[in-house]
Write the structure tokens for this entry.
Amino acid sequence: MLSAILSLGGIGLVAATALGIAAKKFAVEIDPRELAIQDVLPGANCGACGYPGCSGFAKGVAAGKASPTLCTPGGSETLEGIAAALGIEVDAFEPQVALVTCQGDNQRASIKYRYLGLDDCNAAQKIADGPKVCPNGCLGLGSCERACPFDAIEMTSENLAIISREKCTGCEKCVAVCPRQVIEMVPLKATTHVLCNSHDKGALIRGYCQIGCIGCHICNKTVPGAYIIENFLARPNFEQLEDAEAAVEKCPTKCIRDFSSGYPEGSSFAPSRDSAA
Amino acid sequence: MTLKTFAGGLHPPDSKHYTEEKAIERCPLPDELIIPAAQHIGAPAEICVVVGDQVKKGQPIATAKGFVSVPIHASTSGEVIAVEPRPHPMGRPLPAVVIKPDGEDQWDESLQGNDPGQLDAAELKNLICNAGIVGMGGATFPAHVKLSPPEGKNIDTLILNGVECEPFLTADHRMMLEESERIIDGVKILRKILGLETAIIGIEVNKPNAIEKLTAECAPHNIQVQALKVQYPQGAEKQLIDACTGRQVPSGGLPMDCGVVVQNVGTCAAISDAIRLGHPLVERVATVTGPGIIEPKNLLVAIGTPLQHLLDQCVGIDGEPAKIIMGGPMMGQTQLSLDVPAIRGTSGLLVFREEDLPRKNAGPCIRCGRCIGVCPIHLQPTTIAAYARLDRVDDAENYNALDCIECGCCTYICPATLPLVQSIRHIKGGIMAKRRNS
Amino acid sequence: MDNQLYLSSSPHIHSGETTERIMRLVIYALLPAILLSLIFFGLPALSVLLICTLGCIGFEALACRLMKLPNSIKDGSGALTGILLALNLPASTPWWISLLGAAIAILIGKMIYGGLGYNPFNPALVARVVLLISFPVQMTRWTAPTPLTSGIDAVSAATPLGEMKTAVMLTGKLPEMATSGFLNYFSGNIAGCLGEVSALALLAGGLFLIYKKVISWHIPVSFIGSTLAISAIFWLIDPSKYPNPLFHLITGGLVLGAFFMATDMVTSPVTHKGMLIFGFGCGLLTILIRLFGGYPEGVSFAILLMNAATPLIDRYCRPKIYGQVEQQA
């Protein structure tokens, strides 16, 4: 009994000493600022910054190679944290979220053919430029949903991508993966948006989509200066956000939506999770 | 006779019985011909006519732009009534010349025939290029480019592709039976250009009458007919070279890298016309077929004839078309409508009804390995497809995704009915994009 | 009016081969063995079979519902797992152990990884091994075959491999049954699991599968071949201590394992070269466990261990692609 305790204890002592020496002798120098930065990062390893994971980004920032503003998912909180760790001053951070600028789901937008094959928007886009007649509308095969590291995108039962404003961190992964550039980065503080992405003329759009922007200028007439209309497509003027929601009611095709209380009421395709929030 | 073949592949039901006994018929001209400027691999030709121009059959209406490009010609005489984007087999409207036939079908008088014996290789190649000859098996690669190996590449073998391994299609088969003289003449012209004494014609044994006929007629001309096992994709260039010569085209290379030039038998006939008669490539044989087609036919079609017109010649379809395929069922492209014109690469028009379509119900991969067994390049399609789903471009490249010839064997055999070819094609695009960026 | 035409990537025809057909053919191939086991073991065997099969189907349906996956019981893989599990259990297995086995096979062996196609280990074998380790008494209470006609109650008996192991451990010598007269085991007169009773029926089913091209010959041949070859080496060294290779072949679960368990596509390598290595590894481990391990039977452990090696084998056994040689030259 005693010999067993002694021998086991002895082994333990020797091993512990060896480990201790090894830890000291082979220790890797780590910049303490790197650890401090790593602590304030979200830890999602989303790659939005372009570095391999949060630790890679922390290393880059500590070494002065990466800009602290690259962590969009972390938002202003993270930026301030990094600034504190580095002891520097940074400008205020304007948080952005991704927005699917399309409402043309299976019910509202026409198709030019029935697609059979891989559930991937980029693969479908290669076959006669995608099954939707609209050249810029959401294809609804969920490539963005799979690309989102934060589970912020949901596909409706009628195949339209919806991005949760609460969950979106602005990492832009979905923007990069979408073959039709239908996802835009918008300021979080803007709550009124034009959900259409087609520059086609009104007559053409009416032929294939019930809810597309026809470029009629009514929104801008209702709230002068709140909208910018280029090539038959309206966009909110993010420099002038006051009263923009007044145009929601006036829009003849209902493609302007107010997001001030979650996903807009009355849009039949809003996923349950968002409308509850 | 020993049958040569390659390793891998499979044998789908060939479904050639619909048309293999039907002699080639000339398809009457439609009300308007839609002739796109992009009908070949390489730079599209540049349109050189305007609305209102009167054109003659064989007159150039678009000129070649660059070396890997060929001119396009009017397929009949008539008036140019539009130059605008029109539906194209690629799936989107592309620039095209629309001609209203005048019914005379008059050849351009300036087109002159030549005696190939009087011309040297460069002159022959020039004539072939000016006649707009492209690979007529479906790939539409400009013929003169294939015949112009760069310095240092020694071509010692000419293979003629009479395999026609795609199910349903019988255009080349009928050509070999009915136009063997033109084919053999074309082979002799090709031999002269390449400076070769011999040539091999590869034909699958499911066309015994073609093998018999060509064997007899080729014997005096020192052309060897090679019978090949019925095995898809026997007619794919790389597989055909392997079967006929035992050589392999290096990964990422061209047939000329192993000393071989391959041309389709239909291309040979077109080359003969281009030299002897001076006639450019303005018509081709296309098989119009499908289980629901009332009278499937092999038609001699003027380039630019809308598919609907071809279907009308076959008395239409018993039921509603659900899938319109230009080319064969293994590698053909689905079409948005029947308004699309037949172009130089249109080897067939295949129409399926809803009931002819395979059941699609993709399940998970069960790792059965069948795709690996049938891949003629010996890739691992399921592994590459799995990487494609995860967008792991580097891993897919490491598994040689770029060597895929998209023959469709893996998708055909997959018990889970996964769209493997589509996944691989998708990730190939990713790999190419990565290479361009780096 | 929307365009009703279909567009898709080529090819536009399909062989008609389906996962369901593959599973169905494997089940057909097992029918002779199932039938023989029913004849030899009677009603208890039937109850084990039914509980395992229905249990697996039920658990799979349940798991699909909980995991919000499309219901996958139609593909037949769950039923096949159940049948294979039953064939790996003794006829006297209590009902609750059978049911527990079905739960382990489907839930822990398969669905937890995401369902069919994603499981690293053969689900039926996972269940069998878990049961064997957890309930050694019930799992080794073998009954001697009692044909339905004899009308007598089941008698317990040892499996030939168990008998051999005990004898070798006690005396260092092979028992008499292992040196002579074991050939009558071939047709099924043998104590053991349901599926171990007749090598002949299993062989017939296995050959049917190879003939139908459901499985390739590579794994069974290299598995059985390496088992025979390695056991022959030991037998030649000392025939009094190590049994005849044929004894290894027809006793225990070797034939069942080689044709039906090791060839499970999901958990075995995909290339032919990989399959040969996989089969060899199975054979080697089987003999080592049978001759030197603690358990009398080693087929299940061997296959599971090789399952773990499958990704590695796949990684290093890539086929040589067309045109690669010239590129390197």
Q: What stands out?
A: Chain B touches chain A at residues 90-92, 334, 336, 360, 389, 419, 422-423, 425-426, 429 (CB under 8 Å). Residues 18 and 296 of chain B are 6 Å apart (CA to CA). Chain B has 13 helices and 17 strands. The first helix of chain B runs from residue 121 to 130.
